[in-house]
Amino acid sequence: QFILPSSLLIVPQHLTDYSVNVSMNWTTDDENTSLSGDKTMTIHNGLRIGERVALLRKQGGQSYFILDRI
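The structure corresponding to this sequence follows.
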């Protein structure tokens, strides 16, 4: 186990907080409220301090690609 500075890490999008555009047509159970059309949804999946991750060292050892949480 070791700690790396963030400057050496390559973080894939799925391990960050990011926004995506979605098309929806939702109605609530009571049918009084609906959401439809194109909307922007924020996915809160960023890494947090202290989480353990699987790493892949780039050739030369100057940076590391984060594969996923473990």
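The beta strands are 9-10, 17-27, 34-44, 53-57, 64-69.
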